[in-house]
Amino acid sequence: MPYPHIRVSGGPAERGLQYGRLAAGRIAETIAMYRGIFAYYAGLDWPRAQEVALRFEPAIAAVSEDYLREMRGIAEGAGVDYADILAVNVRTEIMFSGLARRIVPVAECSAAAVLPAAAAGRTLIGQNWDWRPGAERTVVLLEVRRDDGPNFVTAVEAGLLAKTGMNEAGVGVVTNALVSEFDQGEPGMPYHVALRACLDAERASAALDVLERYPRSASANYLVAAAGGAAFDAEGAPGGRERIFLDLGDGDVIAHTNHFTSERLGGRDVNRELSSGTLFRLQRLRAGLRGAPVTPERFQEALRDHAEHPLSVCAHPDPGRPGQERSATIVSVVMSLEERRMWIADGNPCTTPYREVDLGGLLGPRG
Asked: Which of 13, 23, 158, 204 could form a disulfide with 226 if both were Cys (CB 3.0 to 4.6 A apart)?
């Protein structure tokens, strides 16, 4: 079944209220899922997870008070505590930080951008988002029409501000979780708040400015491209500008999975130590996108790759791992930025056909 398509509009509080009301059932599923995940990863009961999340309020407000207003609206609309919504929006910081008592391999995404020289004049960006089986009960396609910035659309866990998506200005964002020895849980701009800030950007350079300006709390990778072909990949360890490691590509393809590729990290790449599978997903994704021209259909085919199954680009649960540590592709997304078009597969793309999302003129190309 297609994931629910949620449409909201207005100012931050109004948008949040609509989002919460329209996605209330799925927000409840998100909260229930993270109750179990936080207990498993960090040994935290829900009240303690809420307390940890509240420590991030000042850092979020430093980026934009509107993000807090929106989260309060989501909570009101869904009939849950504000701290519940805050907790799920800092879920990465709770799971993969110094709070964690159990660090397990993360399998959160195989992502790539194909620049115009290799895509017949188009800028294509997309990814497989891999996460825990059961997360498919939480996903929504959130369409935001706003009067305080560019409209955008994002495939995201219900209750979170943003994940993978693109905006009215032709900026697209895909991402990968990373884990380094520097993840100690110190409050900073949370991962999913940073993703939302990228979707608020009018240019790729503006997205990079945000990532470098505000201290970040968690390791993560941000792959951003814009209509016209500007693109960057930013591997970020916790900290500021000094912990952003940039790859501007070779004018053809930029791809990333769940390990640091920069030699400047200067510390342990924890996820790389736990899993070599990330290396082979990167190899296969690059191979699938090698050689022009790359079309949206060919990009989709690259995201169906099953080499090294089940820990493949198109990921499936590994029966050799405990249930809480298994991952699968929950949603697959491909976007054409000049055309403002998006295709998604609502689950594993090997079995779920891609469908084009009807955006109803929300992101109409701008001159």
From this structure: 204
